[in-house]
Amino acid sequence: MRVDNHRFLAEISEVLTSNNGKNSIYLTQKRLKPSLDLEPTTNTDNTTPNEDQYPILIRIAMNGKERKDHKKDKFKLSTVVEVSQLDSFWQEYIQIIKNGFVGLRKKEKKKSKKGKVSK
């Protein structure tokens, strides 16, 4: 379901605080391109850089149960952020993400064996 930016931020905040690390949460961000033009362009010069600015599609998805066969328990939400609103949205979005993922730990590094010499 696609919602506006403020409702998306409110929903993601509720989901992260109520989850408590029980379910996996997937966050994705993509550039939202307009549909492709069907007419061929006459400009074949590929040296000009693409300076167009596109809105960003942000999605959150969460599985409801440990088993994947419960499709009714899945939660999906998305929003489109316009280029003009991007800076203010990122500031709020980052704070919500930081506050919601309090239980994350860094990966433990494996100890390397320094005494062995390979042949």
Description of the structure:
The chain is α+β, with helices and mostly antiparallel strands and 119 residues long. The protein has a domain of 77 residues: 2-Layer Sandwich (Signal recognition particle alu RNA binding heterodimer, srp9/1). It has 2 helices and 3 strands.
Tally of contiguous helical segments: 2
- Distance separating the two termini: 58 Å
Beta-strand content: 15-25%
**Structural class, judged by helices and strands?**
alpha+beta
Give Rg in angstroms: 21 Å
Helix content: 25-40%
Task: Spell the H/E element sequence.
Answer: HEEEH
Shape: extended
Average pLDDT:
78
- Number of distinct beta strands: 3
In CATH terms, what is the fold-level topology of the domain at 5-34 and 54-100?
Answer: Signal recognition particle alu RNA binding heterodimer, srp9/1
Report the CATH architecture of the domain at 5-34 and 54-100. 2-Layer Sandwich
Could you give a short account of the major beta sheet?
Answer: 3 strands, antiparallel
* Low-confidence runs of at least 5 consecutive residues: none
Please list the strands of the largest sheet in the order they lie side by side.
1-2-3
What is the CATH class designation of the domain at 5-34 and 54-100?
Answer: Alpha Beta
In CATH, the homologous superfamily of the domain at 5-34 and 54-100 goes by the name Signal recognition particle alu RNA binding heterodimer, srp9/1
